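Deliverable D4.2, example record:
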Amino acid sequence: ERDFPALPGGGRLWSVRQQLVAGLPQQSVKAVALVNGFWHMGEFTSLYRDLFGETPQQTLLAARRYPGGLS
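Output generated by the structure prediction step:
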């Protein structure tokens, strides 16, 4: 089991994921990342992909495609 807060940006990345999984129509990956303190989108995407095995955009698209079906 991973300790997300112990990873660089782990707690913030988990917060981003929870917001993306909500799949709200007006959300964008960039807006959610910025609100959570990620200013460099390339670095953010790389950290997110390393931690969750998919890009933030993939998470958001899946959440919109399958509402209520992601964890």
